[in-house]
Amino acid sequence: MIEVRPGGRRRIDRVLAPGYASEPEALPLPTLRERRDEAAQEETDLSYLRRLLHARIDIVKAEQLRRSSDDQGDEDVVARLTAILADNALGPATGSGRHQTLEPTRAGEYRRAAEALVGDANLSDVVSLSDDQLTDTLDSYRQQEGSVSQRRREVQAVVDTFNAEIARRYAHGTASVDELLDSQRAASGPDSEEDPA
Predict the structure, then answer these.
(1) Is the alpha carbon torsion for 19, 25, 30, 33 positive or negative?
(2) Residue 18: CA atoms inside 13 Å, Cβ hemisphere, count?
(3) Is there a contact between 4 and 16 (Cβ–Cβ < 8 Å)?
(4) Shortest CA distance to 184 belongs to which of 75, 92, 176?
(5) What is the pLDDT of residue 125?
(6) Range of weakest confidence among 99-108, 119-128, 156-165
(7) For the chain, is the Cβ count within 10 Å smaller at the N or the C terminus?
(8) Which of helix, strand or coil describes residue 75?
């Protein structure tokens, strides 16, 4: 389960801390954008972990289905991984439908965490698990997925709070596109090309 530690140093601890998004109207615009971007990165990382867990859930369910069918055949789940994962990718979307342009920053850490949920079991030996072990594995993945999804929704609410405040400032004229461009030029340094206009 993903726990948020009050006063913790991890990004999720900061983003979901009580005061992080409580008064966005009081924040300077650069701080507002910085916090929005930090929360958006956390959302991206949680989405990545959620996709990892969905893939593992699909694999375990496919093995359970194979065992319960009349024609178990010789083709095990490992041999059918591409089809199993493609079915998930092509199925109806179950997420928020938000477009994400960021890359996950903790991919390796999350992959190890997902693998650790079933102890020594990994995707290549799912066929060697007993029926009870498969059930326990599926339950473990589902519980973790539920926890990740809950935290992801909480982080999305933080991102939405900051986006709404930024949009409000633009709508009321207290922020401008020129100001944004100036801050981006300043951040890119003196080596950046000047606008020809």
Answers:
(1) positive
(2) 2
(3) yes
(4) 176
(5) 72
(6) 119-128
(7) C
(8) coil
Name the range with the highest mean pLDDT among 87-101, 108-122, 145-159: 145-159
DSSP letters for 99-153: ---PPPS-HHHHHHHHHHTTTT--GGGGGGS-HHHHHHHHHHHHHHHHHHHHHHH
> What's the burial of 11, exposed, middle or buried (CB within 10 Å: 0-12/13-18/19+)?
middle
> Residue 150 has what pLDDT?
96
Which of 152, 188, 182, 194 has the alpha carbon at shortest distance from 29? Answer: 182
Distances (CA, A) of 143 to 128, 147, 176: 22, 6, 44
Q: Which residue has the higher pLDDT, 137 or 197?
A: 137
- Residue 34 in tokens: 């910085």
pTM (2 decimals)? 0.73
Tell me the one-letter amino acid at 9. Answer: R
- Residue type at 70? D
Rounded to the nearest 5°, which phi and psi values hold at 19?
Answer: -90, -5
**Highest mean pLDDT of the ranges 26-35, 78-87, 153-162:** 153-162
Predicted local distance difference test score (pLDDT) of residue 105: 73
Contact 32, 170 (CB under 8 A): no
For residue 180 the two structure tokens come to: 């944004």
Q: Stretch 17-44: mean pLDDT, rounded?
A: 94
